[in-house]
Design goal:
Strand content: 15-25%
Largest sheet: 4 strands, mixed
Number of strands: 4
Helix content: 25-40%
Number of helices: 3
Structural class: alpha+beta
Strand order of the largest sheet: 1-2-3-4
Mean pLDDT: 87
Distance between the termini: 19 Å
Order of helices and strands: EHEEEHH
Radius of gyration: 14 Å
Length: 112
């Protein structure tokens, strides 16, 4: 179960990419302006609604890949890992987001 936590954003000031979920951080909507000053790329996931990417305060939405939910455990870790690998390979934000969504959707649809 995910339980929202308050966060000291200053701890993230050296990050190049920050991954969060709207359900992870209590008051995230109010903190996004401050958070955008800390990292180059901020990715905020929102389950089956997709994810928002903030770069220099500009927001871009990427829809999720529709899939049958079997088990969401680890989907965020898969998403972040797939994003980082693809982004480092191609330096293309859209490509990395599509790749991350595909990897996460395949993961949550698999039975264990």
């Amino acid at each position: 179960q995910v339980v929202p936590k308050n966060m000291s954003w200053n701890k993230l000031k050296y990050a190049d990419v920050i991954f969060l979920s709207y359900e992870d951080i209590d008051g995230l909507d109010d903190a996004l302006e401050e958070l955008c000053l800390l990292g180059n790329i901020i990715v905020v996931t929102d389950g089956d609604k997709g994810a928002d990417v903030f770069i220099n305060g500009n927001k871009q939405h990427f829809p999720a890949v529709p899939s049958k939910l079997v088990d969401p455990t680890g989907a965020g870790d898969i998403f972040a890992t797939a994003f980082i690998i693809r982004y480092l390979q191609h330096n293309d934000l859209s490509d990395a987001m599509i790749h991350a969504h595909l990897a996460a959707s395949e993961h949550i649809a698999k039975t264990r």
